[in-house]
Amino acid sequence: MMAVAEEQSQDSMEFRRPKILIVDDEVAMVRSLELLLRPVGDIVKAYSVPEAEEHLGSNIDCIITDVCMPEASGMSLLEKVKRYSPETPVIVMTAYSTVPEAVEAIQMGAFEYLTKPFENADLIGCVKRAVEKKGLIVGETKNIPEGWVCNSEAMKDCVQKLEKQTLTASPVLIVGEKGVGKKRAARWMFERGRSKKAQFCSFDGGMYEEESPLFKEKLARSSFVFISEIFQLTRKLQDRVMDLVADGKIKLVGGTSVNPDVQRNEGFREDLYELLTTHIVRMPSLKDRAADFDALCYQFLESMRLRMQLPSLSIDEQALNILRKRNFIANVHELEQVLERAAIETRTGVIVEKNFVNVPTEDLMNQLPFSIPIEGGWLRLEYLLRALEKDVIERAIEKYPKTSNSQIASILGTTRRILELRMKSFRIWEG
Questions:
Q1: Within this chain, do residues 121 and 233 fall inside the same structural domain, yes or no?
Q2: What domain range includes position 402?
Q3: pLDDT(101) > 80
Q4: CA torsion 204→121→220→196, rounded to 10°?
């Protein structure tokens, strides 16, 4: 009977392209999301809440809205959609994330709440789940993760092990250096083994206190949970997670950038530790993926070309060779950032050596012209951070006087809204 019911449920799924409404006052953001989501469905664009409301009666299958917009808030749009079309999923995104606002959005019926900058895979996966919940089919997951480069034996072996772990409900621990893609791997595991009612959520283990309402709210709604740096969870949150695992309510995937053996005697709950370390998948660092390196660079450049709407974007052999020899502390994530900044620097559409303007991470300590006194040093860090932030923003504006805030933010490795928030805080005004 279960097989028949499943077959009937599958037959009731509708094979048509979903209609996705993107609402954001930033033209560049709308364009970027349009390019990202075009393979998923047909895109409808709106640059304000009033403009978005004009489309609400036209069979919209999913809405993605920013919170902060000039004429009206995305929260008001969420409220109106839930009142007149409660079955339409709404994904709320913002650069100014606060816990009360996130909890309010979820309680008002938001399908998901994302903080900018978010990973492309998170948004794509969220949109797919939202439209599939409405009975639409948007495509099948591939054996090799979509968009992943797996030419190296290390990466092929990793994907093979990840796929095996989708067949079990037991917790899994993904071990790898920062920036290797642990969260993306967990997302793919979810996509491979998901059921129609499954919900994915992710947390940073070091960011939440025991009584965090956002942690509790999202955890209660989810059946597949990824916790990065899981060994940084507080003891009470360890207890909460362990209860859900023991009751079979969640599939837990943990991530860590340190050797799990080091954590055994660090006060981490022993039974949860044993469960996590029963199934370990190690993700290779960038230096162990030499066969993937060039293809990763070309993949990132093509993505940037589309996002920046450039006729062409490439890298010459000398510049590529410099990258091959570099030690990327933050792995794939850092490689993407370096290429993006170089892409902004180039005037010809071809990245050359002089376009690498960022300071190599491993040389950063040598750039400091001072050292912090030990006595009271910790108390000075907050003030020092603000001074450094203010200094780097002022120097960026001085170096690129005719560059938009969006481009300066990209050069700095942040978002336009975060940059402008800091500029306002430091009283840095555009001349």
A1: no
A2: 368-425
A3: no
A4: -160
**Structural contact between residues 14 and 135, judged by C-beta atoms closer than 8 angstroms:** yes
Is the dihedral angle over the CA atoms 330, 331, 334, 338 positive or is it negative? positive
Q: Are 221 and 251 contained in the same domain?
A: yes
Residue 406 has pLDDT above 70, yes or no: yes
Residues 389 and 339 in one domain: no
Q: Are 250 and 203 in contact (CB under 8 A)?
A: no
Structure tokens at 38: 């075009």
Which stretches does DSSP call E strand in 375-419? none
First to last CA, the chain: 71
Q: Is the pLDDT score of 23 beyond 80?
A: yes
The token pair that represents 191 in the structure block:
């996509």
pLDDT at position 298: 87
Higher pLDDT, 318 or 197: 318
What region, left, alpha or beta, does residue 237 occupy, with left being phi > 0 and alpha being psi -120 to 50 degrees?
alpha
Cα–Cα distance measured from residue 269 to residue 197, given in angstroms and rounded to the nearest whole number? 30
Asked, for residue 2, whether it belongs to a domain, the answer is no
Which has the closest alpha carbon to 337: 281, 386, 297? Answer: 297
Q: Helix axis angle, 27-37 relative to 293-308, nearest 10°?
A: 130
Model confidence over 233-291: pLDDT tens digits? 888 889 989 999 999 889 999 999 888 887 776 678 999 999 999 999 999 999 999 98
Kindly list the distances between the CA atom of residue 73 and the CA atoms of 4, 14, 98, 117, 153, in Å, as whole numbers in the listed order.
Answer: 45, 33, 15, 19, 49
For tokens 């998948």, name the residue: 281
Of the CA atoms within 13 Å of residue 248, those in its CB half-sphere come to 2
Q: What is the pLDDT of residues 320-337, one digit of tens each?
A: 999 998 888 889 988 988
Is 143 part of a structural domain of the chain?
Answer: no
Residue 59: is its pLDDT beyond 50? yes
CATH classification at residue 39: 3.40.50.2300
Ranges 40-49, 233-242, 404-413: which has the least confidence: 404-413
- 408 part of a folded domain: yes
Q: H or E segment at 203?
A: strand 200-204
Total tally of structural domains belonging to the chain: 4
